[in-house]
Amino acid sequence: MAGKFMQAVWYTSYGGGAASLKHVETPVPAPGNGEILLKVEAASINPLDCKIQKGMIRPIFPRKFPFIPVGDVAGEVVEVGPGVENFKAGDKIISTLGTAGGGLAEYAVAKETSTVQRPSEVSAADGACLGIAACTALHSLTISGGLKLERNEPRSNVLVTAASGGVGHYAVQLAKLGNIHVTATCGARNIEFVKSLGADEVLDYRTPEGAALKSPSGRKYDVVVHCATGITWSTFEPNLGPTGKVIDITPDGGAFWTYAVNKITFSKKQLQPLVVSTPNAKKLECLAKLVKEGKLKTVIDSSYPLSKAEEAWAKSIEGHATGKVVVEP
């Protein structure tokens, strides 16, 4: 598509939030070796995208400007670059562009190694949401937490904080696939929603019981998937089992300090900061299969056209979306 142009949204410096997003016309990118050009049908905004804009992970992932944000997409293959063997024009796909971004546009370039076929039973919007959010939930439970997505005996106990959010709502569902007892926290308005995902116990985080994270049935947690902020180790520690783990997907300086102290003191209870869980084709394929089979569902809080991408960005920054925020060019 050399010489053709597309609509896109970019920003030209760090900071500025939704107000700094600019609608532009820019050349359609060309796929390089091992790359795929796709027409974007849906893109999912993640907290990581907003952190990149704020410059919070600048030392790890410095940006070149102008920058088209968002890495989780689904769409249709338009063209393939040299060396691509598993995809052809017309294929429906799910892909993660990683921190390279490019998703807030009509077309984007993805690596073949980070792309999977999208089953016909999985919508573009549902597929686009499986990248960072669902992969982080999967990684937290199975890799960091050591649990299996099959019957766990003896039955494990898991706590999911901010369970109505992007990562949280996937974590609840995935844990239930493993016959795990799930306690969850969320705001009062989302209690019935989180119960509908399969949670066995749901706490309103604004109540004293919810703030203390205590299981109503008196259980101690084997794994905590911590998707919220502002909860200290001293709150988690008494609620953990003898070898309980807190997988902190929103770590701050205190989390890294706790991690170091636990290691130095050989504590059997651990806090593990998870800065970025990189999605890959294997995880995406597993998750897409679960959606196809009806075992996992994506809950979409709201969907916006590309022309209103700044509204979607603001909704994501707000941090109170139930499920995922999607842009559909």
TrEMBL record:
Q: Which GO terms describe its molecular function?
A: oxidoreductase activity
**Domain Enoyl reductase (ER) residues, every copy:** 16-327
Among Pfam families, the record links this protein to:
ADH_N, ADH_zinc_N_2
Superkingdom classification of source: Eukaryota
InterPro entries tied to this protein = ADH-like_N (IPR013154), Chloroplast_QOR (IPR052733), ER (IPR020843), GroES-like_sf (IPR011032), NAD(P)-bd_dom_sf (IPR036291)
The entry's protein name is Chloroplast envelope quinone oxidoreductase homolog
- Source species, please? Tanacetum cinerariifolium
